[in-house]
Each structure stands twice: as structure tokens, then as C-alpha cells.
Amino acid sequence: MKIKTADHSRILLYILFFAALLCLRFTLANGEPVGLALVYAMGSVGLSPLLASLGYFLTSLVGGSVRDILLYALQGVFLSIGFLIRAHLKKADLPAQGLPPLVSLALALASFAAFAPFTPYVLPFAFLNGTVPQKILLAAAIFLLAAVFSVAVGALLKKVLKCRLKDAEIVFCVLFFVTVGVGVCRFLGVNAYMGIAFFALLLFACATKDATTLVCAFALSLPLLLTFGLSPERFFVYGVAVALFIKSGRLAAACALLAVFFAYGYADGLYSYAAASLVPSILSAVLPALFFVLIPTPLIRELENKLLFYREKHLSRVAINRNRAAIGQQLFEISAVFREIQTTFSTLGTTEAEDGAKEYIRACIVEETCRTCPQYRACARKGAINELTKLVEIGCQKGKASLIDLPRAVSDACVNQSGILYAVNRQIGDYKRYMTETENAASGRTLLANQAQGVSEILRDLALEQSEPLRIYTDKERALNIALLGVGIVCSEVLVYGDEDNPTLSLVTYGRADVKKIAAVASHSFGTEMTISKRLTLGSDKFCCVLRKKPRFDAAFGVATTRKTGESASGDTHSVIKIDERRFMVALSDGMGSGEYARRISESTISLLESFYRAKMPADTVLTTVNKLLTFNKEESFACVDIAVVDLDDGTADIVKIGSPVGFILSGNTVKILENGTLPLGILDSLHPTAATYELSENDILLFLSDGITGAFGSTTDLYDILKSIPVHNPQQLADLLLQQALTAYGGVAKDDMTAVAVRLFKAA
Questions:
Q1: Of 281, 232, 226, 230, whose CA–CA distance to 258 is shortest?
Q2: Cα separations (Å) of 409 from 46, 324, 404, 412?
Q3: Could you tell me how far CA 450 lies from the centroid of its own chain?
Q4: Residues 221, 234: contact at Cβ < 8 Å?
Q5: Architecture of the structural domain at 553-763
Q6: Comparing 474-549 with 553-763, is the CATH topology the same?
Q7: Phi/psi of residue 378, each to 5°?
Q8: How many helices, marked H, and strands, marked E, lie in the chain?
Q9: Where are the domains of the chain?
Q10: How are strands ordered across the β-sheet holding 652-658?
Q11: I want to staple 536 with a disulfide (CB 3.0 to 4.6 A). Which of 57, 206, 285, 544 is the partner?
Q12: pLDDT digits (tens, 9 = 90+) for 226-263
């Protein structure tokens, strides 16, 4: 049977921890159970407590008495039982799970205080020189050391070479290594420890290539200081030599370390020692330097890349908030510009031009006709000249003035009534052409004003959204990071932002993390379903995942369509677009008639609707703008439109029907009829459609039909009965079946363009 690479790594891990347990047995002079702290830490981070306890027991066989062996066995049994009890309390809260191991550790340390042989240390405080006080003090110290080792081992297994350690984690890791290092010095001797320390120093310097090598050198000097009283200054010099030459290559750094070692050896008179002492001392420096130089380069590169991983920061709240504020301010300024444009165009739309034109017509009539008349002064005295204003008003409204429109004062006094009417009607013709141009200009100004208003509202909403700084969710970020670590997923950065009801989560992960597991942990932490929105590659083994709240619903669509028999193109056009991650729009447009021209009208309508809704224009602005653009066409053009904007979070659907035939909402065994209340787009200059809001539930089907299908059935009642009798929940099957029945009703010949669009909501998986 083949052993997987993961199994090899697991075996190596347990071997290293067993070696650490063996060294910890010799950390103190009386063989105190310092290893219990490591056994507890191994069980706390998810390693096998049975194997940890077994390794702890085996260390007692190295130079231990029968009492030591029995005592170590009893202590291992206590810890194993504590962690086994914790394994059966998985559904309990965290404090309840952690209590049994703590109790078992306390019992194991109590057995040490009660039964272990012990030679008291000589302490400066007389009341602590007794056996029992020192045992109790050591037991308490080991109990605290267990907590320190738990943090250190967890950081070493889950974070080292993956992400940045916290300051407390770094201190606890150093304390763990120093404690084990003291055991190595006491168990294997100074030369063995020196060899391990030299190799660790070279490897650390190669990975970091900076001044932190000096910190590592200081930490490596502490076990020698505590065990043999050697000054840390030597390792500081070793650290300086390695740090200076490591950028020149591994060989240069190794040679620099050996040069300092041999220089110290000459100063200490090392070379005058006997071979039994000289050779081990020299090998303690030469062998680690040789092994370091012979390490394969790919392994070194991988180590460097992993260490650089947590030095890079991809998410910075301060930078993000600063950029958001700047963008928001700029959007506000641009929004104000479009608001001023809208105000300006609206202000220009007055009736002064129309009133001025009428006054101009009256003046022209008086100048051309009345002033040359002998009766002009008499008419002026009787007020007939002023009454011409009424005649011009009536003529402009009717488009032409006649004898019956003459005011009484004019008809009684004027001797040239035919001349007056001729002059009025001639001027009215010019007036009509002028007013047409004026109305077109006003219509264009209104269109631009509406568009400027829509753009202003979009920019204002974006400005408000962008100006709001990211809220701080430190507790949630920390809790999520811990939860992900608990399932073996390491995150160097976690950022939570957005509303509490609709949070957005960004995190940077190491390795090929299971996105489904990340989504599951995030969903549990936030108490709502989260889904992966984006997964961005930052490096060969580094990814940024963006998670958002999963919508409650998803949708399935079905479309069936055919063109009128004998026509080259269909005037029916449909669209299904995603407005954002939580809303979509479905639309059906039926252009006037059939054929190529109807297709162009319908496609233009749908394209405009898609563009405006994607830009998140206000719905009333969208529809009035599309209507206005269609009315600008010189040819007669209009379109019947069904529009629905559906929210996948709550199932609400805002439905607008403009000149279209009936639509339906199929819910279980009930059928709801949707009727329109306005003329088609493009007929009237002014259009004020209203949206009706409906609540769609799971498995409800929204159905839009063109008049080619509805016209195939005798009436709405007949179509209603057919829909109630169709037991189809698949929207595509429903659309196909309706189209087929409509064709059958037409005798197999499509007498009009026919389209059915069906949308079914269902619970998101």
C-alpha cells in the first residue's frame, strides 16, 4: 500500500513533537513534567491526544525510575481521558468543550505534586525552599506554560510561512523554542544545540534576508545563556555576519558564519583541545553549514515565497476609505453639474415664445391691413383693433379663422372683413410652422432635462454609497479568521464591510482553499447564507475570495417564439438581463406590425430598456425617455412592452405593462391576470406609466405573451382556462406548449408574430 505525501508529513510532524517531548523531559534538573504542557497543546490544536500521551510516556523510559514511568503513564491517561471527553462534547459551547482537558491537566499536575520524587532547588526566598511549595509552584508554572504552548503550537502548525503572526504568538513561539532548546542543551549537550542553532540561523536569514536575523540570533542564544551562562553576544556576531553576506548567496553566508566560528575558536584556544573535544565542536558548525548549502534551490525559493506572502497587504481599510471618500466627493460634484443642466433645460420651457408669436401676428395684421383702411381711426375708437387679439387666439387654436370667429366689435365696425381673415390665416400658417419648431425644441429640452435628472440621481446614489466609510467589524473578522483556522483554512487578511443585513466579505487565503468550505464557515459565522461572488488570483498559491449574501431565490427562464408566416423577421423581441447580483429584468416588446421595420422598432425599444436599466436609471425616467425617442421618428412607430424587475431577495416584482396584452402569474392552482392601462410606447408625446408591485413566492411563474398568442384564443377567459389546466412547472415547457396550442388554434399557420416568455422563481440551492 502506498503512503500519501500528507501521511509522510503527519508522521514527520509526530516525530518532531516526540523529539521535543524528549528534550522537555530534561529542561529542569529533576525531570519535572514540562512535557505535559506540550501534550496538552497538541491535543488542543487537533493532534491525536492518544499519540501525544504515548510519546510522553515513552520519554519516561529514557533514564526514568519505575516510579517515574508509572507516574508518566498515569498523567498521560489523565490527559487522554480529558480530550476524549471533549470529543464527545462537540455540540456544546466552547467553554464546556475546553473544561475537561483543563481538569485532566490539573489532575496530572496534582499527581506530580503528590507522588513525584523531587530534590528542592536552593531559592533566595526561605519560604519556597521546601519540597511541597516548590512542587506546587512548578505545577502552576507548567499549567500556565500549557496555555502558552497551545498558542505557540497552533501558530506553528497553521500560520507559520502562511501569514503574519501576532506579537503575542511570536513571543509564545520564542518561549516554546527556548524551553525546548534548554532541554536540548541538557540532554544532547552544547555541541548538538550549537549545530541545530547554526542551521536554524542560516535558514531563517535565507528566508528573510533582513535585520530580523539578529532577533533570531538573540532568541537562539537564550538556551545557552540559561543552561551554561554563555553570553548572547557571540550569537549576535554570528547573526551580523550571516545577515551581511546572505544576499550574496548561501555559500557566502555559510562561509561568513564559519569564519566567525573559527575566529572565536582561535580566541578561546579551541585548537589546543584534545581530538575528542575538538572534532565535535568543529562539526557543530561545519555540518549545518554544509547541509544548508546543499539544500535544493526550489525548496529555498518556496520558503522565501511563503514568507513573503504575509508581508504583502492587499486590503487596507484606511486606503479604501480614503479612495471611497474622494470618489464620492467627485461623484457629488458631477451629480450637481447634471442637476444644473436639468434645471436649466426645465427653466427654458416657458410659454413666452407662444405669447410673443401671437402678439406679433396681431401687429402684422394691423400694420398690413388696418392702417391703410380709411376707417382705421373709427375702428380704433370703438375698440375693434384690440379685439383682433381674440381673433388671433381663436385662429391659432383652430388652425384657421372664419367669419363666425370674428368678434362682434370687429364684425360691426370693419368694412374689410375678408382682408382681415386672409391676413390672419396667412400669419397663422407661419405661426404653425414656427410653433412646430418650438415644440420640437421644447420636446428635445424636456428629453435632455429628464436624462440629466436621471444621470444626476444615479451619480448621487453612487456618491452616497461610495462616501460611506467601511464600517469596522473587528470582532466578526477575528471570529471568522478563528473559525476558518479551525477547519484548516489560513487567511492572512479578512475584511468585512457593508450593512449588517447585507455584508460583503473579502479575504486572502493561502494555497488551494476549498471555496465551498469557506462559504460554509462564513455562512455559519454570519448566520446567513453566503456565497462566493468572486475569486481573484493574487499569486501561484494566493487568492482573494469575495463573498456576499446569497439571494433567497434563483430563477429559470423559458422562451418560445416564431415569426408570422411569410415574413422575413419577427417584430417580437425579448430580453432577460442581470441588473445587479440581486435583481434581474425580463422584458417583451411587440413592435408595430410584422417584418423588418417592426423588428427594428422592437429591438430598439429592448436595447434602450436594457441600457437604461443596467445603468440603474429611475423607472419612470426610462419609460418616458424611450417613449419620447420613439415619437421623434418621422414614420409611425410604436411598441407594446411588458417589463418586470424582480428582486431575488424577497421575490418582489415591479411590473409595467404598456399597450400589451394580458400577462399572468401562475401560483400553484391559481392564475392572476395582469392587465395594462396605457397606450403603446411612441403614440403620445407624454406617457406616465405606473409600476404595480407583486409578491412572487417559490415556484411562481411570471408569464408574458405577445398579441400573436393571445389573439389565437377566443378570449382572455379561454386562455385563463387553458393555463389553469396546464400542470407544467418547467417554464420552457410552458412556453413551448402555449406556442404550440396557439399555432394549432390558427390552423398551423402563424397569423402574427408570436412569443411567450416565462420566468419561474425557486429557492436558491
A1: 281
A2: 109, 72, 13, 5
A3: 33
A4: yes
A5: 4-Layer Sandwich (3.60)
A6: no
A7: -65, -45
A8: 26, 14
A9: 1-188, 189-311, 314-470, 474-549, 553-763
A10: 572-580, 583-591, 639-647, 652-658, 692-695
A11: 544
A12: 998 888 888 889 999 999 998 888 899 999 999 999 99
3-state secondary structure 639-678: EEEEEEEEECCCCEEEEEEECCCCEEEEECCEEEEECCCC
Using the Cα atoms of residue 231, residue 235, residue 236 and residue 237 in order, give the sign of their dihedral: positive
Sequence-distant (6+) residues with CB within 8 A of 715 are none
Neighbours of 123 (CB within 10 A): 13
Residues 6 or more apart whose CB falls under 8 angstroms from that of 69 comprise: 57, 60, 61
Distance CA 544, CA 387 (A): 81
Query: Measured in whole angstroms, how far is the alpha carbon of residue 674 from the centre of its chain?
Result: 37
Over residues 509-530, the pLDDT tens digits come to: 876 667 888 888 888 888 888 8
What values do phi and psi take at 560, rounded to 5? Answer: -130, 130
Alpha helix (H) residue ranges in 116-211:
131-158, 167-188, 190-208
CA 135 to chain centre: 55
Ranges of beta strands (E only) in 464-518 are: 491-498, 503-510
pLDDT of 490-500, one tens digit each? 887 888 877 77
CA distance 602 to 609: 11
Could you tell me if 26 and 44 are in contact, meaning their C-beta atoms sit under 8 angstroms apart? no
Q: Are 574 and 561 in contact (CB under 8 A)?
A: yes
Closest CA to 419 of 399, 395, 403, 398: 403
CATH, domain 474-549, list 3.10.20.10, 3.20.20.80, 2.30.30.30, 3.30.980.40: 3.30.980.40
Integer Cα distance of 251 and 253 in angstroms: 5
638-666 burial: b if 16+ Cβ within 10 Å, else e: bbbbbbbbbbbeebebbbbbbbbbbbbbb
Beta carbons of 640 and 661 less than 8 angstroms apart: yes
| Residue 80 near residue 53 (C-beta atoms within 8 A) | yes
Nearest C-alpha neighbor of 103 from the set 137, 69, 131, 79: 79
C-beta of residue 666 within 8 angstroms of C-beta of residue 701: yes
Q: What does the pLDDT look like over 17-44, one tens digit per residue?
A: 999 999 999 998 888 899 999 999 999 8
Cell of 199: 542551521
Q: How far apart are the first and last CA of the chain?
A: 40
**Residue given cell 579551541 in the structure block:** 270
pLDDT in tens, 334-361: 767 666 666 665 665 555 556 667 777 7
DSSP-assigned beta bridge partners for residue 482 = none
**CA gap 589, 594 in Å, rounded:** 12
Question: Cα separation of 149 and 43, whole Å?
Answer: 11
How deeply is 197 buried, as exposed, middle or buried, from its count of CB atoms within 10 A (0-12, 13-18, 19+)?
buried
> Nearest 5 degrees, angle CA 269-CA 286-CA 181?
85
Q: Which residue has the cell 509522510?
A: 8
Assessment of whether the complete model's pTM goes beyond 0.70: no
Q: Rounded to whole angstroms, what are the CA distances from 20 to 56, 153, 226, 268, 288?
A: 10, 12, 18, 31, 19
Closest by CA to 291, choosing from 205, 189, 195, is: 195
Alpha helices in 310-416 (DSSP H): 317-348, 352-365, 376-382, 384-398, 408-413
- Phi and psi (nearest 5°) for 276? -65, -25
CB contact set of 51 (below 8 Å; sequence gap of 6+): 14
